[in-house]
Amino acid sequence: MIESDVLHLLNQIYTHMDQLSHPPLSDLSPTQSRYYFQEGRPFFGGWEQVDVNQVDDRVIRLDKPALPVRIYRPAQLPKDQPLPALIYLHGGGWVLGDLDSCDSICSFIANRTQSVVVSVDYRLAPEHKFPIPLVDTTDAVHWIHDNAYRLGIHPDQIMIGGESAGANLAAAAAIWFRNSCSSIIKGQLLITPVTHCSFDRPSYLQKGTMNLSRERMMWFWDHYLQSAEQGENYYASPLLVPDASNLPPAIVVTAGFDPLHDEGREYGELLQGYGVMTKHLHYPRMVHSFIHMAGQVSVAHKAFCEMVDVYQEICEDIYNLHWTRVATR
User: Fold this and answer.
1) CATH 3.40.50.1820 for domain 4-319
2) Of these residues, 90, 288, 292, 301, which one is catalytic?
3) 288 FRET partner, CA 20 to 30 A, in 68, 152, 221, 295?
4) Active site includes 136?
């Protein structure tokens, strides 16, 4: 059974969308869907004001179109000491979302772990289909690594993570850097990840909710890929990678009422099978995108705190660090 407070919040959102005469998804253009996505944002507020030392919006200008990033530094910033960093990719099915949609999440992580978080505003589909969002991701990783000390980041202490489609990009980027014989990425935080362009797993057929359904995921994939054949490319579907050895340690987060549950669990099992240090956190009564409910729903906040603390513990193990955890409500 879904947590009652989570279900109550979902019902509030559903009622609001019904009042807006939200049409069937199949009738929506990406632009229209982005409008309704924005309309739903206020329901995911309520976060306590998090004290961060600095939030810095920048634009990466390489030999390609400008790529915005937002850099969060913790409030208790150690003097003259480069910090570990998490490169974060927002969710939204590769079609929705921006830097603002994960702002509270990134602020929270930076403050609680006393590390730098860099949020990447990768280009969206269908205007920019696969593999462009992944190219933006790898470009951002290169830029952050190359400018690490200037950003207050230790170049050997960089992890990558994200939620949903953002976790898909994070997993694919980890594979890409492994294949490139690069050890830039030291770990992965994969929250309710998309890992396979396939819609026949039991969780797709049984665990869909009003915030994510089988139909909606098919709509996202249709806008993301240039052709159905690209769904078999393991940079689009990381679960299909033929060799998962030597990938960086991973935290894989799944929710019980999420169509993506099965493919997320299977990806964690794939990594473990190849000897990759993997921690699987499962929340059986949660839904997809539950981390965005942490400002409104206490059990979601507790779960999010747990996964952030596990992320910090794994970083400590990898980097042999001893951080001071910042208490939050």
Assistant:
1) yes
2) 288
3) 68
4) no
